[in-house]
Amino acid sequence: MAAFSRAKHRWKRDNLFRVLTRNLTGKYDYDLVVIGGGSGGLACSKEAALVGQKVAVLDYVEPSVKGTKWGLGGTCVNVGCIPKKLMHQAALLGTAVKDAKKYGWQIPEPIFHDWATMAEAVQNHVRSLNWGHRVQLQDNTKSKKFLLSIALAASCMNGIGMCFGSSPCRIIVLNSSDVALECAGFLTGIGLDTTVMVRSIALRGFDQQMAVLVTDYMEAYGTKFAWKCIPKKVEKLTSGALQVTWMEINTSKEYQDTYDCILWAVGRAPETKLLGLDKLGVQINKETGKIIVRPDESTSVPNIYAFGDIAEGRPELTPTAIKAGKLLAHRLAGRSSELMNYHSVATTVFTPLEYGCVGLSEEEAEKRHGKDGIEVYHAFYKPLEFTVAERDAGQCYLKKILGLHFTGPNAGELMQGFALSLKCGATYSHLLQTVGIHPTCAEEVIKVNITKRSGLDATVTGC
């Protein structure tokens, strides 16, 4: 155990951690050693300390080529969910200012966005979270013999692939994952010329009808898309601009353009090789590099556990890692036998038109039960707030299969409540028995009554 506390391991993801544990016999220094100070690792550590375990946490962020480092809290806090949502909010406020004029607000021109002000405000909030985590761990040290062994680093926001010192003008985002589209959306929203390069489909792993609605809205919003294209070469010109060469897959034609910034949104690789896990006999998926785990988060080696993004087959979501970490801490302390339930975990993509979902996609439902074995209820609706502002609501849509999918304002807030109903076993008949809150977007979910199979127009009319 002590060897692990002295080693420097590079961890860049929020939930990139492994947990090693052994009951205290006098031979070891800790009941629990957690590698990785992301959301899940911190949750597990704090919970273990609260139930009387002696804990050590190891966290280290290797500086980037430009020297970028960040503080305690992992990717979600420093360069992921939190700064992403705040910048998404900045973009939404820009749209709200435009809407405000239609509602009678007299707003003097010109209106512009100041990048430096936003960046500093977001960084200040991130730093406050870094400090809060540190204080919590120190408090636990005093009361519960919680020991912290961690390399703290300054928070910096350019983990999303660009320098926040100044606002770039033209940006190209390579890939079309949820993170890629979220970044492209808020960059467009604050007035930057943004292009997304898509190799095949957008939002792979999500319901594809919903993915099309999201990207259609983004195109109308101002984001450019280079469909069915792959990057071939990037060259830095003497002017400092980046010249990107790409190929259109269907025609093999090559194109070039210059950008101020390139955002590579092509995913992450777990850094499991650095710990020498093969020597311990820990089983790893050689293709993904992730650790293979059982339902109780245990690995192929006794007393070694893995959860969060580093575990094979687990959702790469902060809340699941936090929940799994807390449950593991209680099991290790003998306080509970409850396992993490990874089914029907809700999530939201914070694109300009938000997309929230829980349960199966239509493709997955058809695959499992056959097209004739499922019923899809759906509706196109118009949020009331879009009416006076004269905003297009053509992509505001919801459908219920063996789950729920929704595009529209505040999709995450709406989806949280319906995720609970699914956990409780709610069915379509339960929705019909529920009285809606009027006028809201959420009420459209409990009013939905038209099936795809019927072929009827699913557009909501009237109140």
From TrEMBL:
Its cofactor is FAD. It comes from the Eukaryota. GO terms for cellular component: cytosol; mitochondrion. Gene3D superfamilies: 3.30.390.30, FAD/NAD(P)-binding domain. SUPFAM superfamilies: FAD/NAD(P)-binding domain (SSF51905), FAD/NAD-linked reductases, dimerisation (C-terminal) domain (SSF55424). Keywords: Disulfide bond, FAD, Flavoprotein, NADP, Oxidoreductase, Redox-active center. Residues 345-445 form the Pyridine nucleotide-disulphide oxidoreductase dimerisation domain. Residues 30-138, 169-325 form the FAD/NAD(P)-binding domain. GO terms for molecular function: flavin adenine dinucleotide binding; glutathione-disulfide reductase (NADPH) activity. Catalyzes the reduction of glutathione disulfide (GSSG) to reduced glutathione (GSH). Constitutes the major mechanism to maintain a high GSH:GSSG ratio in the cytosol. Belongs to the class-I pyridine nucleotide-disulfide oxidoreductase family. This is Thioredoxin reductase 2. It comes from Takifugu rubripes. The lineage of its organism: Eukaryota, Metazoa, Chordata, Craniata, Vertebrata.
